[in-house]
Write a structure and sequence with these properties.
Elements lengths: L19 H10 L5 H19 L3 H11 L4 E8 L2 E8 L2 H18 L5 H14 L3 H15 L9
Antiparallel strand pairs: 1-2
Helix pairs in contact: 1-2, 2-3, 2-5, 3-5, 4-5, 4-6
Length: 155
């Protein structure tokens, strides 16, 4: 066994919604240590989401995150010279991490003028159950379903 894992440093909740999940999202959104810029992008996108949907932007964002949170994924495992894709449950911490990363990644790849616009459009799409990040979750689940035969190789 390796040395003990380092302790997780608790996150400070964000100033507007007093939510640690928002801080975690903004930390992933941030580039080159520009946290205030990342917060501005996030809050602007929530305002745009509220304008587009007519609902509370924060609630729509939370719904979008839950829509793209995966429950199973495939992991590669080498057995007897062959590599198998083995479906496995996703740890709760990793679920959140994956959904945040997917949302940010696919909003960056979208067409639009500003990052706030792109993020707002991705949030709206994910809350409706469409968009690239939702498709990624569906593909992940589909791969796990297709490789269910190898589930007995679990790590």
């Amino acid at each position: 066994m390796r040395k003990s894992q380092p302790k997780k440093i608790p996150l400070a909740p964000d100033p507007k919604f007093n939510d640690k999940l928002v801080t975690r999202f903004v930390n992933n959104l941030m580039w080159e240590g520009k946290k205030s810029g990342a917060f501005n992008i996030f809050y602007d996108s929530l305002e745009k989401v509220a304008k587009i949907t007519g609902e509370d932007g924060y609630e729509v964002w939370k719904k979008a995150l839950t829509n793209i949170t995966p429950s199973v994924e495939v992991r590669s495992r080498r057995i007897g010279g062959a590599t198998f894709q083995i479906p496995s449950e996703v740890r709760p911490d990793r679920k959140i991490s994956l959904s945040i990363k997917w949302m940010i990644r696919y909003s960056r790849e979208r067409n639009g003028r500003s990052m706030a616009d792109k993020l707002a459009n991705e949030i709206v799409a994910a809350s409706k159950g469409e968009g690239a990040s939702f498709k990624k979750k569906e593909d992940t689940h589909r791969m796990a379903e297709a490789n269910k035969a190898f589930a007995h190789f679990k790590v």
